[in-house]
Amino acid sequence: MLFHSFEFIFLLIMAFILFYLFPKKRLWMLAIANLVFYGVSGIGYLGIFLAVSLTTYFCSRKLSSPNGKIYYLIAIIINLGNLVFFKYTGFILRNIEMALNIHFPWQDALLAKIILPVGISFYTFQLIAYVVDVWRKDIEPCKSFVEFWVFIAFFAQLIAGPIMRGEEFLPQVAKLKEIKYDERNIRYGLYYIAMGMTKKLVFADMLAPKVQYYFGQASQLGTLDSWFAAYLFAFQIYFDFSSYSEIAVGIGHLFGFKMAINFKTPYLSGNASEFWKRWHITLSSWIKDYIYIPLGGSRRGFPMQCVFLLTAMTLSGLWHGAAWGFIVWGIYHGLLSVAHKVYTRMLKGRNLTFIKSKAYRWITVFVFFQLTTIGWVFFRAESLQDAIRMVWKMISFSDIRFSSMYILYFGFIAFLWFLHFAEFAIRNNAHKLINTWRAYCPDYIRAAAYVMIFITLVMFTQREQSSFIYFQF
Fold first, then answer.
1. What is the rounded CA–CA span in Å between residue 134 and residue 362?
2. CB of 268 within 8 A of CB of 366?
3. pTM (predicted TM-score)
4. Which among 96, 120, 214, 218 counts the fewest CB atoms within 10 Å?
């Protein structure tokens, strides 16, 4: 059920009305809404999701018992087993075949029956984080399965995040009855939803066919076309993924929930460390808290810290998809992160005034955006061979076929980057801009503007609906 489908809008409106009409029934109403939302994707997959959630809930209640460690391992194995079976079975079998030069005749029949449940990567990480947090005694185990189900399956963020932690969301669910109708919350919610819908319907879906056109003929692209295609995808995936997260945050506001912000204009980052504090923030923090730090973090010396960082980022790439392109993308970002650590270490103790200047800052932002764009080729290309071919042409400038059209093409990319910067400026001055808008703009002009935005979004909704990119993960 897509956010911009009429089915979802109907579900959202009904849930919203019932939520405020019957405050004592909110928990059950949201639980049922979650069942309806996920059940649309398939009753069988809903059953699996419920079974995994029930097992995790039951095991988490037993973690303080004498056999707590066994229950802990059961919960982790069940969750990882569910993810590995549905997401990586085909990848594992194909690579075993290639490595051992054998053939499994039953493989195609098996893989035809395995369809990746939507949102499995996100709910698996949320369930694992919950059980680990209970095991570490960072949070108390939830005493009500209905509350647990609302936390783990909240329909606004179930499919593609943000990945919520128990310590953030469970206390909010526990206080559902106390939530009051707040006009300011509703206004913020509608603002986030409108911004997310605009990013998805106006920008991401507009870029999608052009990205498909270029990456569909990757082997024939020259240097400039390869750069143009990579830039287009960089903005498509940003608009697409950040739109989902912002709509989720907006829906959360409608119900009085505070959801985690997942994106903070990442293409203004000057290095890998900063990028991962701006891009898919809840996944980055998950990788840090549940993989990087348990591996050893910075506790075992600098060389091992680099190894742990590279390992964590590689696993992050594998989480995104069962293909070598995703793994290479993860390794690539791991190497960028390690390079930044080494660079920072080299500069430590040196009194270089230039690195504190605005010029240096803008140079690093420009350079890191190019590095990020190169990485996206591995993420998007239809094969690893296509990605390597494109990246080679991009960095070697070995196949430049210039025409005046490229001035227009790269001017368009500059326009998209300007929009990105404008988003940063608007976010940083949001309260001031909203107050100015409300204080100096007459009511009828504001009303006309809201109607125009609504009509525009409805018109774009009439087009063929495309799924969010991260639904496949």
1. 43
2. no
3. 0.89
4. 96
280 is catalytic: no
Instruction: Pick the closest to residue 31 from 62, 63, 53, 9 (CA basis).
Output: 53
Average model confidence (pLDDT) across the chain: 90
Within a 13 Å sphere around the CA of 269, how many CA atoms are in the beta-carbon half?
23
DSSP assignments along 236-270, one per residue:
HHHHHHHHHHHHHHHHHHHTT--PPP--S-GGG-S
- The number of angstroms, rounded, from the C-alpha of 168 to the middle of its chain's C-alpha atoms is 18
Please give the structure tokens belonging to residue 7.
């089915």
From the candidates 4, 253, 280, 320, give the one annotated as an active-site residue: 320
Following DSSP, what letter does each residue of 54-96 receive, concatenated?
HHHHHHHHTTTSTTHHHHHHHHHHHHHHHHHHHHHHHHHHHHH
Asked whether the bond before 162 is cis by omega within 30 degrees of 0, the reply is yes
pLDDT digits (tens, 9 = 90+) for 31-89: 999 999 888 888 889 999 999 999 999 999 999 999 999 999 999 999 999 999 999 99
Helix (H), strand (E), coil (C) string for 365-416: HHHHHHHHHHHHHHHHCCCHHHHHHHHHHHHHCCCCCCCCHHHHHHHHHHHH
